[in-house]
Amino acid sequence: MEIRFRECDFFNLWIWLELENVPSTMEQQYIEEIFDSWFFLGKLGGFNAENLQVQDGGHEISYMDYDNDEAESSLMSVMHNMSEVQFEGTWARCWFDLGTTDAISLDILVNTLKQFSKDYIVIKRVYIGGENEDWPIPRDQQADFVDAMH
Questions:
Q1: What is the structure's pLDDT at 99?
Q2: Residues ≥6 apart with Cβ < 8 Å to 22
Q3: Rounded to whole angstroms, how far apart are CA atoms 45 and 144?
């Protein structure tokens, strides 16, 4: 699976998947669930790189002291909005306003898509950001997404 980053604006970000085959209805639902789940975790602040106490604790976490004060003092890191997942032929795309979420969210999405591609549906390419020339974003649609969050 090829990963490419194009022009990225965290407040106006399209994520594109090119699949090996046209996805069935069930396969489309799987892709929608990945994006919905990822967004829901982001909406709840799950991708806050300032508070990675367990990760930073190393491999041995038995009896680790979790510092609630440290967790509370980190800056808010939440996603704001997403569109419906759209499908056209072998392509899927979804728009996000990642808000103040940290870039670790994109690592987690890429890791998820890589495993999903191995286990379920082959994804040839993932483009993060930018626009596909053969499937343009209607300017009024893009404006509607951006306006909906303000």
A1: 95
A2: 89, 90
A3: 24
DSSP output for 17-66: EEESSPPPHHHHHHHHHHHHHHHHHHHTT---TT--HHHHT-S--TT---
Q: What is the pLDDT of residue 69?
A: 86
Q: What are the pLDDT digits (tens) for 106-123?
A: 999 999 999 999 999 999
Q: Distance between the two ends of the chain, CA-based, in angstroms? A: 35
pTM of the model: 0.86
CB 53 within 8 A of CB 71: yes
Q: Which of 10-24, 47-61, 88-102, 105-119 has the lowest mean pLDDT?
A: 47-61
Token pair of 53 as six digits: 């106490």
Rounded Cα–Cα distance for residues 123 and 7 (Å): 21
